[in-house]
Amino acid sequence: xxxxxPPPSLVYTPCPPLAVTEAQGVLNxxxxxxxxxxxxxxxxxxxRLVLDFGEELVGVLxxxxxxxxxxxxELIYGEDLAEALLLEDPFPPEHWYHQPxxxxxxxxxxxxxxxxxxxxxxxxxxxxxxxxSVRLRGAELMLEHAPAVERGRFECSDPLLNAAWQxxxxxxxLCRQGFYEDGIKRDGMLWIGxxxxxxxxxxxxxEDAGLARRSLELFAQCRHDDGSLSAVxxxxxxxxxxxIPYLGDLSKPGGLxxxxxxxxxxxxxxxxxxxxxxxxxxxxxxxxxxxVNGVLxxxxxxxxxxxxxxxxxxxxxxxxxxxxxxxxxxxAYQIAAAFAAGVRLxxxxxxxxAADACRWQHRxxxxxxxxxxxxPAGAAxxxxxxxxxxxxWHAHVAAYLAxxxxxxxxxxxxxxxxxxxxxxxxxxxFMEFYLLQAWFDAxxxxxxxxxxxSYYGQMLRSGATTTWELVDRRVPGIDRLVVAGxxxxxxxxxxxxxxxxxxxxxxxxxxxxYAEVAIRPNLGDLAWARGEIPTxxxxxxxxxxxxxxxxxxxxxxxxxxxxxxxxxxxxxxGGRTHxxxxxxxx
Length: 586
Fold this sequence. Notes:
32% of the residues lie in helices and 22% in strands. By secondary structure, it is α+β, with helices and mostly antiparallel strands. It folds into 3 domains: 11-145, Jelly Rolls (Sandwich); 153-504, Alpha/alpha barrel (Glycosyltransferase), CATH 1.50.10; 512-579, Maltose phosphorylase, domain 3, CATH 2.60.420. Strand 17 (540-546) and strand 18 form a beta hairpin.
C-alpha cells in the first residue's frame, strides 16, 4: 500500500459576528460589533449575550475583553439559535455525545480568551456567571478548513436549486479538514459512507484528489483479519480528539474503532473506483489491491440471515424505528454493486481472473436478492424475506445502481412506488443522494428536481446555511425537534454539488481522469443552466439555453460523446467549443 500523504496545511480566515441575537443583563449590546464595549453584568441571574455569525463556521473563537474582577464565563454553541439557548446539556452523563460548551475561569484584567480545541457553530451564547462583570470589545472566529480552490460552478433558472448548490458547496468546504469529516460539530470523524458522497461532491467543486486519496489510505489502515474495514477510521487517527472532546476519548480503542458495517465495506470498493474514474490516479488500483481484495473476500461471506441493523449494516436514519433501520434487500444489492466496481478495478490492473470472479459474484448477488426479496422490476422488492415486510425506495434504488433494474424498468415502477404512502423514503442525506442518482440516471429528471426542491427546500426554509444530516418531511421542520444531537453541517447531504452539474449539465466520465466523457444534457423543467466541471485536463464548460440550444467547451485531452433523445450519438473533439444545436449536422 502506498504511504499515507501528510495532511494538508489548513487555511485560516478571520470571521467576525454579524449581529447580537439576544441579551440579558447587558448594556450597549451591539457595541462589541463596532469596536466599542458591551458590558455584561451578572446579578441574581447570569448575564448573557448571543452572537450570530450569520452562517455555520468551524474553528477557534477569540473574545477580546476586560474582566473587572475574577469571574467565570460559559460558552454555549449552537448550529441553530435553539441549541445555543440550551442552558443545560440535554444528554445524560452516560450518553456518548454531549452538547458542545466550555467553562472558562478568567482573572481580572484585559485579555484575549480562547476556548480549548475546535468548535463548530453559527450562534454562541456568552454567559457570564460572575462574580465579576465583563466588558466585551470584540469577537472573532478563525475559520479553518483544508485548502479549497473554487473550480466547479453551477447556476440555473431556479433560485431554490441555486441555493441548494451553494449550501452544499459551503458544507463540503467546511467538512474538508485533515481528512473528510462527516460533520464538523458531530462527529468530526472519517466514515466510509460519508466519504463516498463527499468525494463526488468535492471533486465537482474543488477537483480534490490529495485529501481524498489520504482518506482512502486511512480506511485501508483499519483492516481486520477477515478483510473487512472499520466503518470509521479511528484506528488510523480519523478523529479530532482532543480538539473536540465532547465525544469522549477517541484515542483509546474501543467498540466504535472496530465497528464493521457491511454496506460501508461495499462503499469502500465503489469509492476506490469512483476516485480513480474522476482523478485518473490509476496507481491507486495497484496500491490498494490487497485491501480491495480483502474487502471483497469479506463481502462474499456476508450472511444476509445474520445481518442486523445497526449491528453490522445500516440503510437510513429513521427516528420512528429507534434511529438506524436496515433493509436487507438494499444491503444485498449494495454488495452486488461492490463486485461490479471490483470488475472495473480488476480490469484496470489487467487481472482477468479476478475480474471474472467479480462478474460471477455480481450476478450471483443480484440473483440471490431477487429470489429472497422479490423482483424490483415489479415494484415488489421487500426489505426483508417475510411476505408482509415493508417496501422502500432504498431497496429499489440499490437494485438500480447495482444493475438489477434498467432505466426503463425504474421509470415503469416509479409511479407505483411513489404513489404508495407505505413505501419508505430516505431521510438521511446519503440515501437521498442515491435516490437522486438513480432517478436522474434513469431519465426521471423533472421528478428528481422536484425531489431536490422538497428535501433541500425544507432546510432552506428553516434558515440552513449548510446541509443537514437528515430531513424528515412528514412534519415540516421536525428536524428541529431534536435539538443539539443532530448535525446541521453534514457532508453526506451535499448531493446538489454533484447532481446538478453531473446530471443537469450531463457530464460524466467514462474513462479514468475524464479522458472520455458522456454528455447527456437534460434541463428537466429548467429554462436554462450553465456551469463548469473540473477535470485533470481543465474545465468542461456547458451552457444550456433550452432543450437543444447551448454549447459545450472541451479542454484538450478530453473526448466526449453527446447523447440526445431520438438521435445518434455524436463524437466531440477536445480543445474546441461545440454548438449543441449543430452538433452532428453536416
